[in-house]
Design goal:
Residues 60-129 form the PEP-utilising enzyme mobile domain. This is PPDK gamma subunit. This protein has 138 residues and is α/β, with parallel strands linked by helices. Helices cover 22% and strands 26% of the residues. Strand 5, helix 3 (93-101) and strand 6 form a beta-alpha-beta unit.
């Protein structure tokens, strides 16, 4: 059965300035989403589900992984190297503020909070909308 054409995903991909994430990718070390704030970052993952937890557990240089960013998260932005979310788009509050802070950010990464684990190292390329899982020394 051929993959269905998703006009909304194609339109969003054009607006986000990158390719639409492909479900057929075979490289398990690369996750894809939509780059919502340009740049590259590398660091250890910190998966958090609420801002109170984040305030206690985020360290400078961490890559924040969460479901969605709201305005309550913004004071934590100076601590982090990059941000990955399951939800949000180019005009979401988190994306706009990430661009203001010069913080690389990728949104629309389905299931990222269960795929990535605390302490795992990743390299974000928000321009390409890609997250590469890497070894600490890479």
């Amino acid at each position: 059965m051929a993959a269905q054409d998703n006009a909304l995903a194609r339109a969003y991909g054009k607006m986000a300035g990158g390719a639409v994430p492909s479900a057929g990718d075979t490289d398990e070390r690369v996750l894809r989403g939509f780059g919502v704030s340009s740049g590259k970052a590398k660091g250890p993952v910190k998966v958090v589900t609420n801002v109170e937890e984040a305030a206690e557990q985020l360290y400078p240089g961490d890559v924040l992984v969460t479901e969605m960013i709201t305005s309550f998260w913004i004071p934590l932005f100076p601590r982090i190297a990059g941000m990955i979310t399951m939800r949000g788009g180019m005009l979401s509050h988190g994306a706009v503020v990430a661009r203001e802070h010069g913080l690389p950010a990728i949104s629309g990464v389905e299931g990222v909070t269960s795929v990535l684990q605390d302490g795992q190292w990743v390299e974000l390329d928000a321009d390409a909308g890609e997250i590469r899982i890497c070894d600490k020394g890479e």
